[in-house]
Amino acid sequence: FSVVNAVILKPVPFPEPDRIVQLQILRDNAVFGTSVSPTKFMVWRELRGEVFSDLTGFMTGVPLTITQGDAPQVISGGRVTEGFFRVFGAPIARGRGFTPDEDLPNAAPVVVLSQSFWRNRLAADPDVVGKTLSMSGVAYTVVGVTGEAFDVRELGDPEVFIPLGLDPATADHAHTFRAAARLAEGVSLAQAQARMAASIDAFHERYPSAVQAGESFTAVPLREAFVGDSGRTLWVLLGAVAFVLLIPAATVRSLLLFGASRRQRETGIRAALGAGRRRIVQQLLTESMLLAVVGGALGVALGVAAMRALLLIDTAGLPRLVDVETLFGIDWRVAAFAVAVSVGTGMLFGLMPALASARVDLNGVIKSGGVRSGHDRRNNRTRSALVLVEIALAVVLLIGAALLIRTSIALGSVERGFSADNVLLLRTSLSGTRYASTASVERAIRAGRERLLSMPGVIEVGTGHAVPTRFDSAVPFNVVGRDLPQGEFSGVADYAVANPGYFATFRTPLLRGRDFGDADTGGAPGAVIVNEAFARRFWPDGDALGARVLIGGGAMSILGDEPPREIVGIVGDVRNRDLGAEPAPTMYVPQAQLSDQFNAFFFGNIPLVWAVHTAASPTSIAEAIENAIREITGVPVIDTETMEQVVSVSTSRERFNMLLMSIFGGAAFALAALGIYGLLAYSGQQRVQELALRLRL
Description:
Blueprint: H1 2-9, E1 20-27, E2 30-31, H2 38-45, E3 52-68, E4 71-80, H3 84-87, E5 92-95, E6 110-113, H4 115-122, E7 132-135, E8 138-146, E9 160-163, E10 178-183, H5 189-206, E11 215-221, H6 222-227, H7 230-262, H8 264-272, H9 277-313, H10 332-358, H11 362-368, H12 373-413, E12 423-428, H13 438-453, E13 458-464, E14 474-479, E15 491-497, H14 502-505, E16 510-513, E17 527-531, H15 532-538, E18 548-551, E19 565-571, E20 586-589, H16 596-605, E21 608-614, H17 622-633, E22 637-642, H18 643-650, H19 652-686, H20 688-696
Parallel strand pairs: 4-9, 6-8, 15-20, 17-19
Antiparallel strand pairs: 1-2, 1-10, 1-11, 3-4, 3-10, 5-8, 6-9, 7-8, 12-21, 12-22, 13-21, 14-15, 14-18, 16-19, 17-20, 18-19
């Protein structure tokens, strides 16, 4: 419940959190990613004042390079529109936020600092407003510092904020940032969703060629947008916990019934001395409540320790767990839940034995010495029914655990389309004025690859912006020569920048055609490599090799200079986003053939990944590889990990679920066995006189 509380129930840490919504795009009534385009944002901005008090576009995790001391460092930045601080209720401790004029293309560069950046990196300089800060080769003027209470960890935890700089007259349909809004006073969520759905007509009127079939707009509460589809899994696991709770509770009820049977003579004597039925029930219920409260207190302590151990091992990629330590604080929801469970189980499973004990026949009990065979038979039937329920619940959990184990095994043996063995991944930020042109990035990549290939133990080197299981870019395209209705594209496919050596590093097979080479430069004809799923879907009866595609379909200004590209190769299918999902159609383009505009945008916001295939364990030469990349590019390595770690993270949710269900199933089985033992032990005890007679005979 602590995890459910932290992920699902806890409000987002902003003022009036229920009035903040995330603006999203639907395709056939299903969420089509979380990113939106500048053109859609400009249409929604016209709802400001009517539906929204304010709205913002924002992009976090933007790598920015600063120089402190002798070594450059990479920090996480956020590109935001001028309404960002109002939508999220950010207190400004010093200076101000952005003005509308500063949030335009080619405006003077300004920056708002986070409280932590100001304190930790600038020593809380009281005169920081008005000073300049150099980031990625650009001098930004500091205009403000956010307050200490502004918690943006769930938004990506940017250290600084710079304007997104959207053009009001944009024609850019690329989905590149997220959008959020604050509901206007008196506007309900349902009203906002209705107006968002209706705004598709205005968008269609303004951009008739950009509306896709089945597309619509909506607004969802920010907390719901953060949780996504994780909520269903957590509620199912909480249901499994309820099963585990019911099993020992049923066992305790059986034990209380045992005790009630053994204490019938005592209860009869108390009644004979004047104790009323209510008094007897109160006494027995107090005993069961004491057991429940003490057990609940011990359970909280044990639960905190077990949860700490589990989540420090693996958080399973659950959203909103920005700081696992925050889970271990007992807030009012967790405290109320613990009390309710303890008191509820004590009342529910202690009341029936107490009522049964209070219904005594004084004469019969005293004369028979406390033995009431009919009463015992009823209790035995009740205990037998409880044991059957315990076994049934345990079997359900064990079956669930077995199914999840089977799923985990299947994921381990699935055909991935790549190899993770001995592959080291390093990310660098090639942003700023030094790498503003395509040629400058190409020179750095070429020099870095040559340097790394000359190192002992390095077999192959590839670069790109995404690696298998971590693709996050999809763009539309048109097949050159195919007629389409207005506003339609030939299709949408995953998109990746991949340079020479990329496929060889991951051992992705080249099925037909050729790989990228050093000849695929900016002056060469446009080339693209697609996967088998792409060729199979869009050329079911023909040959994709040699065909030409226009990436962006002519409807994305950021790809306005994109030439038609010839499909020069077809590679095997790779599971780009999830090992459990079928491979998606994918297009790969060489970095050297990007336009300067797209190159600056792309690598200004997304780090470049260096993938290095080594002969032995990649961690043994990781430091030498980092030093070589830093020397060649002049920028630090942001982070380093192995491809095996990436694969492990991609399957962490399934492993987490399997581990929990296995623990729950094992605990349920053990507790059900304990219940059976209790029933048989008591039954044997009740039959001592009968068995003695049998032995005597």
